[in-house]
Amino acid sequence: MEHSVQEVTFHHEPGGSEVVKKIIKTTIILSVITIIELGMGLAMYAFPMAAGLKLFLKGVIVILSLLKAFYIVGVFMHLGEEIKTLIMTIIVPLMLFIWFIAAFLWDGNSWKVLRNTYNPKAATEVHTEGGKH
């Protein structure tokens, strides 16, 4: 009785080691940025500092978070390899959405400050059941 042996070949994705290197690089970059953000955030609460410096650190943390978001979109959604017009059709609405959120927060705070300035009683009023003040 004779058995035939078939040769099995495995097809690897081209550039397999390059993909692994890209994943490791991405992981290291995102980890370093995250550690920096955490260090800055912990420093704000661990050490006494001026309000202006805290605000500056918060701004840097937001910028680093946006940097991470753009990097993730560029690497994992492969936008870094796409044509410029496709990238712009995704990034421009994203930037407008961020502006939209900031505008709503600014407007809401302005409304709260104006309400409390011209009607200080509104900030301290406690409403009870039945609509009585």
Structure description:
The radius of gyration is 27 Å and the shape is elongated. 73% of the residues lie in helices and 0% in strands. Helix 1 runs antiparallel to helix 2. The protein contains four helices and no strands. It is mainly α and 133 residues long.
Sequence of secondary-structure elements: HHHH
Q: What class would the helix/strand composition place it in?
A: mainly alpha
Q: DSSP strand (E) fraction? A: under 5%
Kindly report how far apart the N and C termini lie. Answer: 99 Å
Any idea what the shape is?
A: elongated
Proportion of helical residues: over 70%
Number of DSSP strand runs: 0
Q: How many DSSP H or I helices?
A: 4
Question: How big is the Rg?
Answer: 27 Å
Name the poorly predicted regions. Answer: none
- Give the biggest beta sheet: none
Q: Averaged pLDDT, please?
A: 81
Describe how the helices and strands are arranged.
Elements: H1 16-46, H2 51-76, H3 84-118, H4 120-124
